[in-house]
Amino acid sequence: MSTLNKQYRLAARPVGLPKDSDWEFTSTEIPTPGEGEVLVKVHYASLDPAMRGWMNDGKSYIAPVGIGEVMRAGTVGEVVASNNPGFAVGDYVSGMLGIQQYGLSNGTDLTKVDPNLSPLENYLGGIGMPGLTAYFGLLEVGAMQDGETVLVSGAAGAVGSIVGQITKIKGGKAIGIAGGADKCKYVVDELGFDACVDYKSDSFIDDLNAALGGKGVDVYFDNVGGEILDIALARLNRHARVVICGAISQYNNTTPLRGPQNYLNLLVQHARMEGFVVFDYIKQYGEGVKALATWHGEGKLKFRNHVETGIENFPATLLKLFSGENFGKLVLTIKED
Amino acid sequence: MSTLNKQYRLAARPVGLPKDSDWEFTSTEIPTPGEGEVLVKVHYASLDPAMRGWMNDGKSYIAPVGIGEVMRAGTVGEVVASNNPGFAVGDYVSGMLGIQQYGLSNGTDLTKVDPNLSPLENYLGGIGMPGLTAYFGLLEVGAMQDGETVLVSGAAGAVGSIVGQITKIKGGKAIGIAGGADKCKYVVDELGFDACVDYKSDSFIDDLNAALGGKGVDVYFDNVGGEILDIALARLNRHARVVICGAISQYNNTTPLRGPQNYLNLLVQHARMEGFVVFDYIKQYGEGVKALATWHGEGKLKFRNHVETGIENFPATLLKLFSGENFGKLVLTIKED
């Protein structure tokens, strides 16, 4: 085996969409674990909209990735060397090891996963961060109740697809918004949403109103921001909850971000808009993983991964998130053999 | 006494600031109360930012004022004729009788008030709707806790002035935003806020940061919207609450409303933004009035009214709200003798 560790490092802070020149593709020696450390061979990396935010300078819920540092990413892999009594060679783990073939950890940020229970890549998706984001966002932040109507944007995406399925499991009405007829068909036929409307269609507004049947929205779970957020704000029921999970339509803006013009409908409807990141619920991850894995095992919760291959394809693959080309949770296979 | 009842009626839906031609000044016979009805001679009318919203067509928390109808307004006055056993001639009452000298009511929307306990005009201000708006907005919607930092815009206004004073009563730090040095001096010296910053000053941002002492905001109580809302959103503490009470900077816009561009800080800080109107708390008004009147009686809560005189001055006086010319709760004396 090669003794080199290929890595993607952040070379410059992007303006708008990340360009090739914003990255540096490097090779260094595979590190040797020190006292208490674990060396993990990365099998899969998770590509997520949040990564775009980590590339910007400035205060956020997590420090930005430094220039010259390996790009931060969620990963799953196999322990190949360990000086930590908590981890043995051959263990499978998930953790934030970044876009590289081998990562070192002191073990505190690693979670053991079982590839016999579910394919390894699902620990980056449906029973990983996106699944937990959907779970805590809908049930804790959104406080969704039986019988309520939930509208979710990015409905075919890693988070949105699970939001709608949990809505159905919990007795609600799930209406998705997605880009394109294929995605909408998948959301309704495969995932069991009550309806899905295509925001790229000329009849989007009429279709949305028809799906709502003249009624309003109790929970709007927003992954996209921009105009769709405003359209949802105009359709809130009294005491509605707007869950701000992301704003992928705005992440690559070079002009000022579009604020929600209809925010005063929060006043009219005594509604609230609340943001969160999944890390806020770290103490409850066990509960969330258990629920997601159970529903998945019972066939009530379906996951779809969009897997691309090769660390060298990282920059181009990441861009698929922003063009909406991915269909399902976007995962990059890093392991070469 | 004249048998005519002067009234201001809505003649047209304003575009931007209300113009003279949007009003019709009429005189009709003073009505005679029918079975169960009460005739009230209006002493004072309350002029409030919310009135601008009632002049627009479209769905809101309350039906718009119809073209040709007497302009809706909160009032206090004296019962001068009654066919309702609940009210006697000589009773003082508050109710939504509108911009007119005499109003009829079936009594269900009237509340008896005691001018010996507090001057009549205070029932339109500190112990009326603005006081209740501050009370429920800060303590229920904002869920303000002992030791927290509360930032409030419109700090010299009818609602904002009370928000900061309740903050102090409840053990918090109160920082106001107001327009002009005189208002800021009043807010600190008379009302006891910890600090007040002048948004019209060139050093506004620096002054605000200095008042916050490098710390963030736990509750932002927003009466103004626009750029100041964005400035506050950028300074939220974790789990902060943004209370949307109004957006006076935006009510006369003829261009699209400015949405809060910094709303994604809700995500970063796991914060929430929630709107309300005081009518949402109608069942708790008694509790609120009692608390406000008690604090006022103990000298802990001060009110300032800006009283103008003459029903014929209604259109011009209303505009003072939007230019910020009023200093204290804006009240119009309607009673002529």
From TrEMBL, chains A, B:
<dbReference type="Pfam" id="PF00107">
    <property type="entry name" value="ADH_zinc_N"/>
</dbReference>
<protein>
    <submittedName>
        <fullName>NADP-dependent oxidoreductase</fullName>
    </submittedName>
</protein>
<dbReference type="InterPro" id="IPR011032">
    <property type="entry name" value="GroES-like_sf"/>
</dbReference>
<dbReference type="InterPro" id="IPR036291">
    <property type="entry name" value="NAD(P)-bd_dom_sf"/>
</dbReference>
<dbReference type="InterPro" id="IPR041694">
    <property type="entry name" value="ADH_N_2"/>
</dbReference>
<feature type="domain" description="Enoyl reductase (ER)">
    <location>
        <begin position="16"/>
        <end position="332"/>
    </location>
</feature>
<dbReference type="InterPro" id="IPR013149">
    <property type="entry name" value="ADH-like_C"/>
</dbReference>
<dbReference type="InterPro" id="IPR020843">
    <property type="entry name" value="ER"/>
</dbReference>
<keyword id="KW-0560">Oxidoreductase</keyword>
<dbReference type="InterPro" id="IPR045010">
    <property type="entry name" value="MDR_fam"/>
</dbReference>
<dbReference type="Pfam" id="PF16884">
    <property type="entry name" value="ADH_N_2"/>
</dbReference>
